[in-house]
Specification:
The structure holds 2 protein chains of 2 kinds.
Chain A: E1 4-7, E2 10-13, E3 19-25, E4 31-38, E5 42-49, E6 56-57, E7 64-68, E8 74-78, E9 87-94, E10 104-105, E11 109-113
Parallel strand pairs in A: 2-11
Antiparallel strand pairs in A: 1-3, 3-8, 4-5, 4-9, 5-6, 7-8, 9-10, 9-11
Chain B: E1 4-5, E2 10-14, E3 19-25, E4 32-38, E5 45-51, E6 56-59, E7 62-67, E8 72-77, E9 86-93, E10 102-103, E11 107-112
Classes of the chains: A mainly beta, B mainly beta.
Chain lengths: ~110, ~110
């Protein structure tokens, strides 16, 4: 059981380049999330999808777009990468049934923007 | 404004002793609190949680204490083991659930043999 799978694991971009981070979960979860982790900042929510067909902004959505392709897959796109987007990105999923929920995280994507 | 704060970036504890990790929050609407553990090159994994209707929750060597009046929670690990060396994040949410999780900055725990 793979859980939450993210690709790629590492990526180096030049300023202005675009790329898409892929995420897939095999736990039949309804909700999916994208977080970024920066030193001294903890994990901050970029976007989330409470259920298939819906997406909403989190705390730090600027410079990103997302697509909930189907129930399993949730992608994060950087249209024009900036050095401020250098970070570790985590995808997560949950049942999406309300309170007292646990998130299940992927292993992360280390992104450097030069 | 950091709503969930872990003021100790790092903590070093001797194997077999108690590890105490602290977390403070400012939003009185938070009603559910979680601790996640993260090893290098891996994603965070859920460790233990507590609802605001309780002041203590225990799971094996791990106990979380909640002091609502002080807006403070702590994670106790007894006895500490080398495998407990990791970064620990506390997180909090309001009624809306996981979509509204707010994380602290993390505390790096090192267990020394």
């Amino acid at each position: 059981n793979a859980g939450v799978t993210q690709t790629p694991k590492f990526q180096v971009l030049k300023t202005g380049q675009s790329m898409t981070l892929q995420c897939a979960q095999d736990m039949n979860h309804n909700s999916m999330y994208w977080y970024r982790q920066d030193p001294g900042m903890g994990l901050r929510l970029i976007y989330y999808s409470a259920s298939e067909g819906t997406t909403d902004k989190g705390e730090v959505p600027n410079g990103y777009n997302v697509s909930r392709l189907n129930k399993r897959e949730f992608s994060l796109r950087l249209e024009s990468a900036a050095p401020s987007q250098t970070s570790v990105y985590f995808c997560a999923s949950s049942w999406g049934q309300g309170t007292n929920e646990k998130l299940f995280f992927g292993s992360g994507t280390q992104l450097s923007v030069l | 404004d950091q709503q969930v704060k872990q003021n100790s970036p790092s903590l070093s504890v001797q194997e077999g002793r108690i590890s105490i990790l602290n977390c403070d929050y400012t939003n009185s609407m938070f009603d559910y609190f979680l601790w996640y553990k993260k090893y290098p090159a891996e994603g965070p994994t859920f460790l233990i949680s507590i609802s605001s209707i309780k002041d203590k929750n225990e799971d094996g060597r791990f106990t979380v204490f909640l002091n609502k009046s002080a807006k403070h929670l702590s994670l106790h690990i007894v006895p500490s083991q080398p495998g407990d060396s990791a970064v620990y994040f506390c997180a909090a949410s309001v009624f809306q659930g996981a979509q509204k999780l707010v994380f602290g900055q993390g505390t790096r725990l090192t267990i020394n043999p």
